[in-house]
Backbone:
């Protein structure tokens, strides 16, 4: 008997698929290597979404070295369909894409803020002020910025144009 195929040594234990389908698990069961008896929900979701007959056909049409990847894909899609019956993995992908878009926007704003602060610092050093001088109170931009606190990503480049030089030279 093969180890890791849903069977314990010496005692035939049906794989999760055969257990759910209430049938005898044959020695050459196509499901046994991929749906072990200790993971019944794995096959239950795949069966609910794709159907046992369709999964059987798909696995038999594939070469053995590709079956593991196919089962992983089916399990992922089935779990996504159970969580979100309308969109499935497309909903998960869309959600992740939105998160990526938001994070890219935040990164671009942070990078723009760094550039802006460097320009301010260069403007201060060109005017003879050092970032640590007493008139500067430790912050390169404190002399030129409003006293109201601002959100880290709120950037108004126009309000700092009082430096005399354009910020975008």
Residues:
């Amino acid at each position: 008997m093969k180890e890791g195929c849903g069977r314990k040594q010496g005692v035939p234990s049906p794989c999760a698929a055969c257990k759910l389908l209430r049938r005898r698990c044959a020695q050459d069961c196509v499901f046994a290597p991929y749906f072990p008896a200790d993971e019944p929900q794995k096959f239950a979701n795949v069966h609910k979404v794709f159907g046992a007959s369709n999964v059987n056909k798909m696995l038999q049409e594939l070469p053995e070295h590709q079956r593991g990847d196919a089962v992983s894909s089916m399990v992922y899609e089935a779990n996504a369909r159970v969580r979100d019956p309308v969109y499935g993995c497309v909903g998960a992908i869309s959600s992740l894409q939105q998160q990526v878009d938001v994070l890219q926007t935040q990164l671009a704003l942070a990078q723009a803020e760094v550039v802006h602060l460097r320009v301010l610092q260069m403007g201060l050093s060109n005017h003879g002020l050092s970032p640590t001088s007493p008139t500067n109170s430790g912050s390169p931009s404190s002399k030129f910025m409003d006293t109201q606190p601002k959100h880290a990503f709120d950037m108004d480049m126009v309000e700092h144009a009082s430096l005399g030089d354009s910020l975008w030279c």
In short: Confidence is low (pLDDT under 50) at residues 133-169. The two ends are 76 Å apart (CA to CA). The first helix runs from residue 16 to 21.
